[in-house]
Amino acid sequence: MRAKAPPSTRSRIKSGSHDGQRTKPARKRTAAERERIEAIFDRFAEADPAPATELNATSRYTLLVAVVLSAQATDKSVNRATEGLFEAADTPDKMLALGEAGVANHIKTIGLFRTKAKNVIALSQILLRQYGGEVPTERNALEALPGVGRKTASVVLNEWGLEPAIAVDTHVFRVAHRLGLADGKSPNQVENQLKSTVPPPYLTRAHHWLILQGRYVCIARKPKCGACPVADLCPSKDEY
Ligand code: SF4
Fold first, then answer.
1. For residues 73 and 174, what is the distance between their CA atoms, to the nearest angstrom?
2. pLDDT of amino acid 137
3. In the prediction, which pLDDT does 238 show?
4. Closest to 59 measured CA to CA, from 1, 7, 134, 122
5. Ligand 1: which of 9, 36, 178 to mutate, judged by most atoms within 8 Å of the beta carbon?
6. Does ligand 1 come within 6 angstroms of the Cβ of 174?
């Protein structure tokens, strides 16, 4: 008999900022649950020991810009746009020389391109003025940059190996619920729960695995449970 999926499995992200700030700790797990969760990440690690972002970038600066551009856009669409953009400007000073209209022209195929072009120029100005053209590596400094929120900072800090952060986007949120790793109602709650649920050796890579799982296997409308590498460990399998 299959385990019954947790009632939160079909939860949706609650966008209220106040709710997002509330902490909902991960519930206490039984030894069997901890074993199941460990087995999920063992399986991910076996299949893909070194997962990485699918965004194309050649430096900390270009990664930061790519992640800023990826808000509400697919990595593929960002890569298409940044191919020309980074050829023309892969440093803050070159980006300023390109100008807001030039940046907008390169990225006009992705959503919110005008706002994003403005943010890329504004953050490049700050990097030049305050950080000698380098990208700061402290979370507070990153989050103070235009267009850089908590999620963006988490993605780049994790990618740079500076913080085992788990940025919770729509894929991570969905997969964490379906796999019974978290039941929080907001990205911040899920992030906090994942931090204490994911076995420590896997914390740095968990973000990538969960995103890739959500993007290619555990997709929103019709998850591919038949091809899922952790189907036998998933409490939601029989829901689809
Ligand atoms: S078994 Fe299905 S619902 Fe569970 S993680 Fe895999 S694809 Fe998602």
1. 17
2. 94
3. 84
4. 134
5. 178
6. no
| Residue nearest atom 8 of ligand 1, based on CA coordinates | 218
- Model pLDDT, residue 112: 94
User: How many A from CA of 224 to the centre of ligand 1?
Assistant: 7
Token pair recorded at residue 145: 């940059």
Domains for the chain: give ranges and CATH numbers.
Answer: 30-50+164-239 (1.10.1670.10), 60-149 (1.10.340.30)
Q: Is any atom of ligand 1 closer than 6 Å to the C-beta of 197?
A: no
Say if CB 201 and CB 42 are below 8 A apart: no
CA 26 to ligand 1 centroid distance, Å = 21
Which conformational region is residue 91 in: left (phi greater than 0), alpha (psi within -120 to 50 degrees), or beta?
beta
Q: Is the CB of residue 234 less than 8 Å from the CB of residue 77?
A: no
Residues with catalytic roles:
151, 169
Kindly give, in sequence order, each residue whose CB lies less than 8 Å from that of residue 210, ignoring residues fewer than 6 positions away.
Answer: 166, 171, 172, 175, 176
Nearest CA to ligand 1 atom 2: 225
Q: How far apart are CA 152 and CA 55, in angstroms?
A: 13
Q: Walk along the chain (240 residues) in steps of 10 and give the mean pLDDT of each run.
A: 38 42 67 96 96 94 97 94 98 98 97 96 98 96 96 92 90 97 95 94 94 95 95 93
* Predicted TM-score (pTM) above 0.85: no
Report the sign of the C-alpha dihedral through residues 66, 69, 73, 77, in that order: negative
Task: Give the 3-state secondary structure of residue 51.
Answer: coil
- CB of 235 within 8 A of CB of 5? yes
